[in-house]
Amino acid sequence: MLRNLPPVPPGFVGRRGELAHLDDVLYEERVVTLTGAGGVGKSRLALEAADRVLRAGERGAAWADLWPLRDDRLLVASVADAVDFADHTTHQALDSLADWLADRDVLLVLDSCEHLVVPCRRLVTRLTTACPRLTVLSTSREPLGVPGEHVVAVEPLPPATDAVEMFRLRAAAAGTPVSSPADTVAVARLCARLEGMPLAVELIAGQLAHRTVEEVELELGPRLDITAEGSPPGPPRHRAVRTTIGWSHELCAPAERLLWARMSVFREPVDADTVRVVCAGGPLPADEVGRALAGLSRKSVLSRVDAGYRMLDTVREYGRMWLDEVGESRELADRHAAHFLGMARDADRGWLGGRQAAWYGRLGSAHADLCAALDHLLSERPDTAIELIGLLAFPWSCCGHLREAAAYLDDALALSTASGPVRTRALWALGITRVLRGEHEHAGRLAAFCRDRADLQDDTGGTLRAAYLLGLTHLLRGRPAEARSEVETALRGAGGTVFASAGHVLCRLVRVFALTGEGLLDEARREAEELRGGCVARGEWWTRSYTDYQLALIALFEDRAQDATAHALSMLDGKRRIGDSFGIALGLDLLASALAAQGAGERAVAAYGAGETYWSAVGHPQRGTPELGPVRERYEDTARSLLGDDGYERALRRSALSDPEAVLHRLLDGPRGSS
């Protein structure tokens, strides 16, 4: 069952009637849209409703943030990411997503659709037509216009009751509780003038760290007088939010106002170091950033998310307006892109080191900002964009963003005039995306071209990477001897030790696979153990997990089921650490075979069932090198004989209907005895 919702903050106030209504309509209607002004609380209400659905335990729920998207280019990819679909297919993206969701009972939340109403309408219409058990809950400032859409207009909180309660809770959380009768009366007057708009209430409560309630009312009250001359146009509740944001902006110190504007460039929560690197400069020195961050947090302009800071999209819009006003939009986009290019370079340099898994995590958490950097560079400096996507495509390809990697590579290669190793690296990365989608011939042609280009450029790293890709295509087409010949030639030409570079390691890994495929098991085992030992010493996980894969396979060939189980579990642990869903699917198949060989029938079938779900999540049937197929078939038969046909089918259905991550957790972290 999908359980992909953001953390639910404590202190939800009111909305009992709306929640009760949503409890009903989310089971009766296919498309429900929460509409209302920015700052009225649509997203918070949607999150609370989705959490209630999830806690009921009858269906899954997934959340897709759409506000970071500049246009619809990454719309389908964002939704696929939300529902754990790592698309490795060659089909149309929306068709593949619809196939993945076809039989799933899921509530999909699309948050902040107002700037993508037409593409969201197309997406929702296609998905609800193809997926009979899917329900969509969207938030938007206007309806999507989908046939049969049930629209719920989200109103402000009742000013005299819930808005006051929200004000009191937020003020208390900020360390300035409202306690005296006079202050309570003043808060009630303020909430009435704020029209009960939650965002406005939060911002005003944040000002109590520096002002009394009386001072806030005296300063803000005249601005909120809707009959006052020169008041902003629009409905009162719109004016309340705009006025409150504007007043909060005026009350910020100059450094805080500048930081507010500059931080509007970010799409994801960011830590203080990243803010300092991108946003410091000029009248905002680096040593002032921490103080400005603290001030914006106290004023509720920023909220804390784990170790980072996040700005609500309505507040971000205001900051972006001011960034345009001060003429820094282009400069900040450049600095933002430069920072994330630097992150990608550091991650690439650190790929073989002890922080490899941490780098995968950082690239994953910064995904929306990396996409924003690519979008900016593609329009302004495509020769830099091609370097960035060339660095990102390999980690993206195995961790759920294969289709995005391929699309950005296609665009960068078309727009960039760069030549030399940077272009060769991008072409190699494109080959990786092709081979993972099963396009082996195309990948082989790209690999051969990259090899020739790298040789001409005297680019040893490029030659080794090309040999790895060529070797991989040979392995997947059942040609292990050709794969071994390719990488051995490249390794002889490059010289150096096993861990001289990432290219050396990748070629050594192909050699291990090839030796196993040729049946040279003793030699394959020795090489795999040597390579694994070096990975363990360095804290590297990607290669280590594939050496465990090979050692598990070799152990099965040699009827050492216990060793095979240990290596398969170790492989899965590594793939889980870096979020490699393709590798997890492979590892579950291998673990299932090893468990069946040990006589652990129930656990074997649990692994088979979870493996089927993971294979489905990459959009194609089971894959791997050809020698794995007969192993799967042999031990599936073994598991069936252990449990009997009926017992096998029951256990398989039970596992296939379970949350695959929960099954993986039990297999890795639970009791490891036979069932």
Explain what this protein looks like in three dimensions.
By secondary structure, the protein is mainly alpha-helical. It has five domains: 3-153, Rossmann fold (3-Layer(aba) Sandwich); 162-251, no CATH class; 254-327, Winged helix-like DNA-binding domain superfamily/Winged helix DNA-binding domain (Arc Repressor Mutant, subunit A); 352-538, Serine Threonine Protein Phosphatase 5, Tetratricopeptide repeat (Alpha Horseshoe), CATH 1.25.40.10; 544-669. It has 31 helices and eight strands. The strands form two sheets. It has a six-stranded parallel β-sheet, with helices on both faces. Strand 7 (302-305) and strand 8 form a beta hairpin. Helix 6 crosses helix 7, helix 12 (272-279) packs across helix 15 (329-349) and helix 17 (367-380) packs antiparallel against helix 18. Residues 226-232 have low confidence and may be disordered. InterPro entries: P-loop_NTPase (IPR027417), TPR-like_helical_dom_sf (IPR011990). This is Regulator.
Keywords:
675 residues, mainly alpha, Rossmann fold, Arc Repressor Mutant, subunit A, 5 domains, 6-stranded parallel sheet, two-stranded antiparallel sheet, 66% helix, globular, TPR-like_helical_dom_sf, Regulator, P-loop_NTPase
